[in-house]
Amino acid sequence: MSEFFEAIWHGEGVGDGGDLEEALQAYVAVKPDDGDWVEACAADGADPAIERFASFDAYLDNADPLETIPVTAQMITDALALLPT
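RE: above sequence
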């Protein structure tokens, strides 16, 4: 089985993906109006992170994530730049 990733924003899941890049692209759902990811990520409680699970089934079974990856504004910006316009 392949790994599964969930994007976390303000303590809530905002999207997911089958790989890290796809999960980072899920942050498009919470894109700040002014496009300032540095400020948005620094906002109190934003705490962007990616939770990595062993598999989609593990995620569905509410297993603990294998790791939590802190997300930076640059990581989000780079991933969103790869989305088609």
